[in-house]
Amino acid sequence: MQDSTPNPEPLPSAGETNTPSADAPQTPEVMPSIEELLRAAELQSAEHHDAWLRAKAETENVRRRAQDDIAKTHKYASEKFASELLAVKDSLEAALADASQDAASLRAGVELTLRQLTAAFEKANLAEITPLGEKFDPHKHQAIGQVEAPDGQPEPNHVVSVLQKGYALHDRILRPALVTVSKARDT
Fold first, then answer.
1. Dihedral Cα 67, 69, 74, 75, nearest 10 deg
2. Domains in the chain, start-ordered, CATH in brackets?
3. How many CA atoms lie within 13 A of 119 on its CB side?
4. How wide is the angle at C-alpha 48 spanned by C-alphas 46 and 50, nearest 5°?
5. pLDDT digits (tens, 9 = 90+) for 99-136
6. What is the model's pTM?
7. CB of 155 within 8 A of CB of 136?
8. Which helix (H) or strand (E) holds 43?
């Protein structure tokens, strides 16, 4: 009986080299020349340099556009508030133009104008600070004097009178309220 498995090729001995058989295709391994490697590296370097220049230009364009946007924001930040104040100005001009008004109609016009101004302030998040009776807060109030605490207010360091209202924009104080503060009674 014959074995149907093919015989494996014998391994070369220590002094022999394994030469491919005549029927196997031969692919010579040729190393590219130094000049070819240098050209390929130069092309790759030029591509990377070009990509870097484009990225640098794009970054500069983004930075410039951002600076322009910031400048426009600063320049036109009060546009909405200013447009709200136009109605107030129109009302004041109309009141001054009408010379035939009596005191009662003039007062009604001024009250209407004040309501328009208050509405414009509210839309712009501009709030009044009227601290009558509150504890003195140096961050919101500016004390211009001290008086003895009135009978109904035994605690010192409270606002007794407001001479000028303060204003805050969101949480930032634009103008502190000018107030008179109570002091402890002398006994």
1. 110
2. 126-187 (2.30.22.10)
3. 12
4. 70
5. 777 888 888 888 999 999 999 999 999 999 999 989 99
6. 0.60
7. no
8. helix 34-75
| Contact predicate 164/173, CB 8 Å | no
Residue 148 has what pLDDT? 86
The vertex-8 CA angle with 6 and 14, nearest 5°, equals 165
The whole-angstrom separation of Cα 114 and Cα 107 is: 10
Residue 11 scores a pLDDT above 70: no
Within 10 angstroms of residue 84's Cβ, the number of other Cβ atoms is: 17
Please count the residues of the chain. 187
Most confident of 52-56, 70-74, 94-98, 158-162: 52-56
What string of DSSP letters covers 87-107?
Answer: HHHHHHHHHHH-TT--HHHHH
